[in-house]
């Protein structure tokens, strides 16, 4: 019993740890500006290098106690402080950290700066100080340029080059070059899925064929599955029936094997038995008379529920 | 004194009433009349109709009374959250699962295809809605009316087109109530006299173990194909497992009675109240009602036509009566009853009810799958 409890406890702990790691995995470095001379200003009105983080999960994420660093040999360079409500990032939202080495200025001011003369590797480590959540190497940039994911939170899959998912932005008006600290890297006026359907499937024909195909295949799968289960069940019940009658299943020709009983057959057999045994149900004609007993309750008491007449003297 | 009375007058419904309010109040009263006098889906139309009255009593929105359904923090707004965030429909599906006996479907699994074919109504209406200029997400929400499944329509429209949800929900429930009026002419039109008297083989007895396996396998198979259907299908099959497993009778009873009743009351009332004149009486609403009607007709017709087509491949003694084709829409058990009544009209010894229940419950699964597909593609 003790062993089982211990095992259960260990499994629960492991599950919780995995869940937490999975949840934090959704935290992404989304955009970085190394030399900020004319872009966003912090709450003190100063220009400083900034790092934008994005919560790619569809649930809010608490990021206090994760570590932000620009030195992978020192993974715990800047711990995001506890106790600030702003460290809870809503689903699919962003926060900006200022890499200005002024941690006393607030939660979002790190203990390090970024070096404009060389590529900067920026990483986020989980609260244990070991588990890497996300990492990016920002190339050498000109003043006013940012290095950003093309689409929020989307990075390379295994075997793909991470650089293909990032772009250097100079803030020009052309599409895809906006610098967007604290907001989405790709500005979406409308839902791209809807636009695509509107453009490529104008009359809805492709959607109809695809969707009906999916509906049919789901129900055909279910139908086949239950056809197999019913066949298996029917043969099992036949075998059981023959075993009960002492018939050897293997010796019978397939045509001689009894068929499964339908509900109607069962009803007919029961009615025949009922008739044969003359087992009339007499209960319906028995009149049962029980003494009605009312338990006393103050709620039903006349003394309490009726208004008492005033005494006349 | 006069100032106070004037101020009070400005807050009254009389001072704020417009003709749109009066029209919507009349519609609400009509729904209540239909439910009480004509017995058309009273469980739904009474809450919706009364909700319409609640939602369309005129008041001054600038008075800051926080009483309107769309005013954040108002009581009605809190109750409406179950609709806008889409958590009432899965609870209703839990109740439907706990109420539904899938025996007829398990006994004759090929009837699932009839339920699937009726979903053509949804996608036929989708194409027409696109032609009328609706965006694909709006078209999908409107088209789901063809599934004849109120909770599914509300669930999908709350995700894809929240601004049209009131009209879609009212339209879906109205047509569900009008199933006895809409379906029989279509069924008569598409079938011959000989087809209407086809006698189907009685369904085999279904073992309890099959009934227990059904919700588990059903959930796994359908949700692996369409994960976006998990909220509806998950709750539907969960409710059914509670019913069939035999060890959770209390839970099944609560899900199918008390819980469903509570959610139906809240859902119906808040959907009704959401049909405020200013947002409801638009050109789009008229289109939605027309498209919903068309979707319903296509769904009923495609079920019947599919059975006729299916019969071409079935041996003579295993033919299906096409009168059960209409039951592919998921208006349970109303459309099955219509199949049965129409069957009895042509042959007083031909009881189709249990046969029709197969495609009927398959229609519930089919429309939830179709909603999942639309949600997956368009959300």
Q: What does this protein structure show overall?
A:
The complex is a heterodimer of chains A (313) and B (379). Chain A has helices spanning 2-25, 192-200, 205-245, 263-276, 302-305, and strands at residues 27-33, 50-55, 61-62, 67-69, 78-79, 88-89, 94-98, 120-125, 132-138, 146-149, 166-169. By secondary structure, chain A is α+β, with helices and mostly antiparallel strands. Chain A folds into 2 domains: 25-187, Lamin Tail domain (Immunoglobulin-like), CATH 2.60.40.1260; 206-281, no CATH class. In chain A, the strands form 3 sheets. In chain A, strands 7-2-1-10-11 form a 5-stranded antiparallel beta sheet. A 4-stranded antiparallel beta sheet of chain A has the order 5-4-8-9. Chain A has a two-stranded antiparallel sheet with strand order 3-6. Chain A is elongated, with a radius of gyration of 37 Å. Chain B has 21 helices and no strands. The model of chain B has no long low-confidence stretch (mean pLDDT 90). Chain B is mostly helical and 379 residues long. Chain B has helices at residues 2-11, 13-16, 19-37, 42-55, 75-84, 88-99, 103-107, 112-117, 120-131, 136-143, 150-160, 165-177, 179-190, 193-196, 208-225, 230-244, 249-273, 277-280, 283-311, 334-346, 353-378. Chain A binds chain B through residues 191, 193-194, 197-198, 201-205, 207-208, 210-212, 214-227, 229-230, 233-234, 237, 260-264, 266, and chain B through 105-107, 109-110, 112-113, 115-117, 119-120, 122-124, 126-127, 129-131, 135-137, 139, 202-207, 209-210, 213-214, 217-218, 221-222, 225-226, 362, 365-366, 369-370, 373-374, 377-379.
């Amino acid at each position: 019993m003790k062993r089982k409890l211990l095992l259960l406890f260990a499994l629960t702990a492991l599950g919780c740890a995995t869940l937490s790691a999975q949840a934090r995995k959704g935290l992404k470095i989304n955009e970085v500006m190394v030399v900020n001379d004319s872009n966003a200003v912090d709450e003190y009105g100063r220009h400083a290098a900034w790092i934008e983080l994005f919560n790619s999960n569809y649930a809010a994420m608490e990021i206090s106690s994760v570590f932000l660093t620009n030195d992978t040999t020192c993974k715990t360079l800047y711990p995001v402080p506890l106790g600030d409500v702003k460290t809870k990032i809503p689903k699919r939202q962003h926060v900006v950290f200022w890499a200005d080495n002024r941690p006393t200025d607030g939660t979002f001011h790190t203990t390090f700066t970024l070096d404009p003369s060389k590529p900067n590797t920026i990483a986020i480590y989980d609260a244990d100080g070991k588990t890497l959540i996300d990492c990016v190497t920002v190339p050498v940039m000109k003043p006013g340029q940012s290095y950003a994911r093309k689409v929020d939170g989307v990075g390379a899959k295994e075997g793909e080059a991470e650089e293909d998912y990032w772009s250097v932005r100079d803030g020009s008006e052309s599409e895809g070059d906006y610098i967007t600290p604290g907001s989405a890297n790709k500005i979406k006026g409308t839902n791209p899925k809807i636009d695509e359907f509107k453009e490529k499937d104008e009359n809805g024909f492709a959607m109809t064929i695809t969707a009906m195909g999916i509906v049919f295949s789901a129900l055909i799968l279910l139908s086949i599955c239950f056809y197999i289960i019913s066949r298996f069940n029917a043969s099992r019940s036949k075998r059981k029936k023959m075993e009960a009658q002492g018939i050897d299943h293997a010796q019978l020709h397939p045509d001689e094997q009894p068929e499964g009983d339908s509900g109607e057959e069962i009803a007919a057999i029961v009615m025949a038995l009922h008739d044969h045994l003359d087992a009339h149900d007499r209960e319906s004609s028995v009149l049962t008379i029980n003494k009605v007993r009312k338990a006393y309750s103050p709620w039903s008491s006349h003394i309490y529920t009726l208004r008492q007449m005033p005494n006349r003297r | 004194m006069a100032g106070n009375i004037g101020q009070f007058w400005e807050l009254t419904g009389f001072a704020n009433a417009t003709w749109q309010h009066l029209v919507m109040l009349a519609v609400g009263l009509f729904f209540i009349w239909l439910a009480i006098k004509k017995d058309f889906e009273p469980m739904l139309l009474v809450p919706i109709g009364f909700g319409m009255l609640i939602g369309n009593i005129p008041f001054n929105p600038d008075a800051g009374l926080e009483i309107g359904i769309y005013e954040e923090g108002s009581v009605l707004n809190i109750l409406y959250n179950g609709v806008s965030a889409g958590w009432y429909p899965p609870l209703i599906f839990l109740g439907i699962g706990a109420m539904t006996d899938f025996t007829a479907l398990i006994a004759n699994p090929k009837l699932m295809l009839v339920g699937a074919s009726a979903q053509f109504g949804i996608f036929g209406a989708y194409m027409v809605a696109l032609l009328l200029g609706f965006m694909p997400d709006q078209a999908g929400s409107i088209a789901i009316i063809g599934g004849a499944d109120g909770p599914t329509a509300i669930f999908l429209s709350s995700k894809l087109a929240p601004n049209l949800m009131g009209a879609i929900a009212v339209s879906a429930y109205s047509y569900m109530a009008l199933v006895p009026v809409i379906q029989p002419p279509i069924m008569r039109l598409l079938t011959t006299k000989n087809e209407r008297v086809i006698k189907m083989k009685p369904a085999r007895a279904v073992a309890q173990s099959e009934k227990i396996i059904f919700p588990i396998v059903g959930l796994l198979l359908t949700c692996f194909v369409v994960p976006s259907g998990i909220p509806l299908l998950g709750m539907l099959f969960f409710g059914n497992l509670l019913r069939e497993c035999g060890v959770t009778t209390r839970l099944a009873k609560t899900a199918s009675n008390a819980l469903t009743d509570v959610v139906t009351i809240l859902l119906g009332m808040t959907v009704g109240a959401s049909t405020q004149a200013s947002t409801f009486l638009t050109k789009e609403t008229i289109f939605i009602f027309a498209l919903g009607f068309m979707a319903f007709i296509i769904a009923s017709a495609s079920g019947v036509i599919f059975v006729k087509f299916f019969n071409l491949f079935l041996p003579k003694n295993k033919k299906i009566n096409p009168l059960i084709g209409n039951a592919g829409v998921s208006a349970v058990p109303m459309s099955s009853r219509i199949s049965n009544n129409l069957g009895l009209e042509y042959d007083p010894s031909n009881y189709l009810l249990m046969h029709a229940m197969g495609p009927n419950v398959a229609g519930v699964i089919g429309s939830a799958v179709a909603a999942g597909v639309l949600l997956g593609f368009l959300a």
